[in-house]
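Issue 218. Parser rejects a valid record. Input:
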Amino acid sequence: MTSSNIIVLCAFAFYMLVMIGIGAFYSRKTKNNEDYFLGGRGLGAWTAAISAEASDMSGWLLMGLPGAFYLTGTGDIWIAIGLLIGTILNWAFVSKRLRRYTIKAGNSLTIPSFFGNRFRDKGALKIVSAIIISVFFAVYTASAFSSGAKLFATLFGTDENYSQVYVIGLIIAAVVILVYTLLGGFKAVCTTDLIQGMLMLVAIMSVPIIAYAIISGNGGLDANLMKHADIKGYEITSAQAFINPFDGGLSWQGIISGLAWGLGYFGMPHILVRFMAVKSEREIKKSGSIAIIWVTIAFIASFFIGIFGRAFVESNLNETTNETVFIRMIQQIFTGNGILIFIGGIFLCGILAAVMSTADSQLLVTASAISEDMYKGVINKKASEKSALMLGRIAVAVIAVIAFIIALDPNSSIMGLVSDAWAGFGAAFGPVVLLALFWKRSNAAGALAGMISGALTVIVWDYIPFIGGQTISSVTGLYSLAVGFPVALIFMIVVSLISKKPDDEIVSEFESVKNNNI
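Output the parser choked on:
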């Protein structure tokens, strides 16, 4: 191991110890399920905003998305645009009413419990929700673990031992995330997310600016892009075509698929739970402004990392290495003396921050769904707080193991894993959340129909090879969320209309929330 690697490892060790220390600190403050899963509804504006966005922007923000831009130029910019629109709409319309409704509807601590309380369901909604959360969060958490493992393998591995170092990195990432999630619960996760979100922002803003300055003094952007124009399957015909979203391979499927990513926000449990945990609606308004600014900066910076990375990184990357472009840029910029290398190591911790801030949130939501909703809510309603909390922590470990197994393949695509999980949640939960909040005629039967139809549509679209051995997604080029969301919306509306109307108590509760009488 080189001296540079040792310095970077020291930076990583320091960062991870700080995160574990925060988990240990908050473990003393965690006394019950509301503390562990919702932080006692005491989040401030900055913590709620940055935690929500940091838990959203996993390793795909610093690895998957820049890697896509690196290969295709602005072809994938529609994803960023869709996500930005979704972020704005989520904070503007969902955040306040969801917080208000979860308090009114039995002080719901989780999204599944909100569904159950909102529709007065006896258990089916909670169980189906918990199953969907467990399945898709296992995939989503795997993408975060894979990001951390690729970081370690890229930094400390060689062509000969890449796979072995990848597994070591996977183990380290999984263990550290597990330790502080198990220790401190929601408040620890949100506090670390605040730190990690700010670190991510500093890293993602600084690196493309420095890279562009170097490129400008070495022939300019266009000339350096054309030096790396011959990547097989992703050739650049001209620098302008590469950076113009309306030039070249534009298709209606690509635009619709990219924009459809924004629909996913309405169904992301790990983001929605932040709205529920904010201490007041006044803080939510402030949080929304902070979050939207953070996301806008992050997406713009991610775009420039991919574009400038294509011109800056010395050796060409390909379909299996493109997601390491941010890492390669840092390695080339922060080289020479020990201080620069250590600073580069801290910047690389931004990737760890992205990985950890998402995986911890997803594990915690999964634990709450299994212990609070499935076990205590349906299976054993007399279960004690202590036993439910212990089961939740066991669930965290089990889901982490499943995610670890999914992520074992070093050639797995971070963007691909995120895409699958995002579509699953967006289609299964998005329409249900929106109609539960804004349509008083919606009912439990409709919610169940929407949830199941959305999840099944995504699974069929993405995984079952119906057409000549290919999936519908591969043949049509259309993102499954663009189909699954409207399917679930239609099913929920139709089934709600043809089944029994909600009773007066449910309608009265809806009107109270609508008029802010809680």
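Fixed in the parser; the record now loads. DSSP finds 21 helices and no strands in the chain.
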